[in-house]
Every structure is written in C-alpha cells, then in structure tokens.
Design brief:
Elements: H1 2-32, E1 44-55, E2 59-62, E3 65-76, E4 85-93, E5 107-113, E6 123-128, H2 131-176, H3 181-201, H4 205-231, H5 242-246, H6 255-288, H7 294-323, H8 325-333, H9 338-343, H10 345-375
Parallel strand pairs: 4-6
Antiparallel strand pairs: 1-3, 1-5, 2-3, 3-4, 5-6
Length: 387
C-alpha cells in the first residue's frame, strides 16, 4: 500500500509538471504572436538617462498646477551616446495627471531623433524610468508566491503571466483591428477560464464543473451588460483615453462594445474563483458521502455558494469604487444631490459594471452547483482510509 501511495503521488506530480510545461509552451507561443497593426517606424529612439541638473526658471505656478518648461542636463546611460551629457527639456501643460517634474538624480527616458545631432539639439524628456522598479516589484511578488505556494504558487505565477500575455498579445490587437470586442472578449475570457481552471484542477470532472459554471456566469454577465448598457445609454466614452484612441486613427472602433467586454473581463477572475470553490467543495462532499443523491449534492453546492457570494460581491464593489474614489469625493465636496450623482455618466457606468459583475457572481454559484450535481454525481470513488 505504501508503494501504491508513492506511485500515486508521483503520478500526480508528473501530471502537474506536464501542465506547467504546457503553460510555459503556450506563454512562449503567445509571446511570439504579433497581431498589432503595422505602423511606420518611429523617427528616433528612446534612451535611458540620468538628470544631472535642473533649471526651473521657466516654470510658472498657477494654483496647484505648473506651466512652462524645465531645462535639464542629462547623462546618457546606454547605447551609442553612453556617458555623454546633453541638454533636454520637459514641457509642463498644467495637466496634473500627465505632467511630471524631474530632480537631479532621477532616471528618465529621453527621445533622440535620428536626423538630428544631440549635441546641438535639445532632447525631449519623456517620463520617469520605471522599468527597474516594475521588475523589482514583480520579482518580489513572484518570490513570495513561489515560497508560500511552492509548486502551486509557481503554476499560479504562470497563469498570471499567461493572462497578461493573452490580454496584451491577443485581446487588445484583435480589438484594434476592428473585430467585435464582444466576441473577442468572450473568447479570451473562455480561453483564460479553460487554461487557468484546468491548470489548477487538472483535466478531470472537478475542472470541467468549474469551467462550465464559469462560462455560464460569464454568459449571463455578457447578456446583462449588453442589455443594461443600452438601457443606461452608456456609450463607452467614460473609459480613460477612449477619445484619444478614437482620434488616433481608430474612429471605426465601437467603444460601447469595448466597454461591455471590459465588464465581464474584469469580473471573470472572481467568477472563476467562486466556480472553483463550489466545484472543489462538491467533489469533497461526494468523495466523503458517495451515496448522496443528486438533489442532496445540489443542495450542498448551493449552500457552499451562499457562504461565498456575499464576500465576493463586496470584493467587486470595493475594487471598482476604489478606482473612482476621487470622483465620489468631488461629488461629496460639491454637495451633489443623489439624483445628480446617480445620473452622472461616470457613476452610471460604474454602477452597471459593479452590479452586472455581481449579478454574474450570484448566478455562477447555482449554475456550478447544478452542473456539478450532473457531472460529479456517482463518478467519484469513495475516500479510503489507512488501515
């Protein structure tokens, strides 16, 4: 029996390693995909530089904002001009969300045109260089995830990277090419649900139950989002940079569809979590009590879902409202009436996003329970105890 246990353990380990290798291969394949619309090459390059000195004499302060120019001396830190010192300028346009100020010692990105001599041409300081800290932050996150979760943490990290690649390399370029944002978003969410759930649960009935429940919840969310976005008359322009996108040569995009796709994309993670919780709990119940009827198993799944739904819907509310905290504070500071507050397009868009996402969460629990009662019932072997 001991040998059998050891053999089963290694079988599971090999399966997990196989799934992880499959995920790595998928990540590499998607990374190599290039679907972005082809554009003319930029007439220059951006290089890393360090600010040596700053002249703020041409800056004018107007209330809380500044307008004018910062004149900089910078040292190039890489590439053809490494070690050389050049002049650079940072233009401030009294836009607090976009303007940046530099100080000596800051690392910045500067743009150098191909057809100019940087010794006689003033460079344009683009922004603070944040790549180093981004890599550091992600490395700390990855280390914590692997140390705490061990192999499961490693596979979770792979699923995180896979999700980022799918969104950046598939969803965004396909939407930019003019494909239906609804269809693309639903396909991407289905792909993410399948890969992540089967990576975690394995290719078994528990994974199938969680996947089917997730897709059912996403379907309901997409239909509800389609209907209520039109009832609320939300055109999608409330999303950041939507107007800039349209005026960048993409006026053919349907930003209302992009907004709808963003609704169920943003709630799909919570939907997967809830579906997996219910499916795993139902599998454990049927393993321990294999004589349960389908109705009893269904009732157990629904009870599990009830205990999780409350906190999950609150999680969505807090996540969405946190992104618009300053908006709500502005309305409160101005004494805006509840009627004006609710009818504001930004508030209405967040209301739709929060409630539709929560609606999908509520329905995914009974859907998963019903599907689990069909898929899991009488297909699990009873749990065995050591003699």
């Amino acid at each position: 029996m001991h040998n059998m246990k050891l053999w089963t353990f290694w079988q599971v380990e090999r399966r997990d390693i196989g799934m992880a290798l499959t995920m790595l291969v998928l990540c590499l394949i998607i990374y190599k995909i290039d679907l972005y619309p082809k554009k003319d090459p930029e007439p220059g390059r951006k290089v890393l530089a360090r600010v040596l000195s700053v002249d703020n004499s041409n800056l004018q302060s107007t209330g809380l904002v500044q307008r004018g120019e910062q004149n900089l001396k910078v040292e190039i830190l890489g590439g053809r001009w490494k070690g050389e010192h050049f002049s650079a300028v940072n233009v401030l346009r009294a836009q607090m969300e976009l303007d940046k100020t530099f100080a000596p010692g800051d690392k910045v990105l500067v743009a150098i045109l191909d057809d100019v001599d940087p010794h006689t041409y003033t460079l344009n300081a683009q922004d603070h260089y944040r790549i180093g800290y981004t890599v550091l932050l992600f490395s700390l996150f990855a280390l914590l995830l692997i140390v705490f979760g061990q192999f499961v943490g490693f596979t979770s990290l792979l699923s995180f990277v896979f999700s980022c690649l799918v969104i950046w390399k598939l969803l965004i370029p396909l939407c930019l090419k003019g494909y239906s944002a609804l269809l693309v978003s639903f396909t991407v969410v289905s792909l993410l649900c399948a890969v992540i759930i089967f990576l975690v649960a394995g290719l078994n009935r528990k994974g199938l139950t969680a996947f089917a429940g997730s897709i059912a919840g996403v379907l309901v969310s997409s239909v509800m989002a389609f209907v209520f976005t039109r009832l609320f008359k939300i055109n999608g322009a409330v999303m950041p940079y939507s107007q800039v996108l349209l005026y960048s040569g993409y006026e053919f995009l349907n930003i209302a569809e992009i907004y709808i796709g963003a609704i169920f994309l943003s709630s799909s993670g919570a939907v997967m979590d809830l579906a997996m919780d219910v499916a795993a709990g139902m599998e454990e119940v049927i393993l321990r009590q294999p004589k349960l009827s389908r109705l009893q198993l269904l009732q157990s799944g629904i009870r599990m879902g009830r205990s999780v739904v409350g906190t999950m819907t609150t999680t969505l509310l807090l996540a969405y409202s946190g992104g618009y905290l300053t908006l709500m504070m502005t309305f409160a500071a101005q004494g805006t009436s509840p009627v004006d507050f609710i009818n504001n397009p930004y508030v209405a868009s967040e209301t739709v996003k929060t409630i539709i996402g929560s609606f999908g969460l509520v329905v995914v629990a009974p859907f998963t329970a019903a599907l689990g009662a069909i898929i899991l019932h009488k297909h699990a072997e009873p749990a065995k105890t050591d003699p």
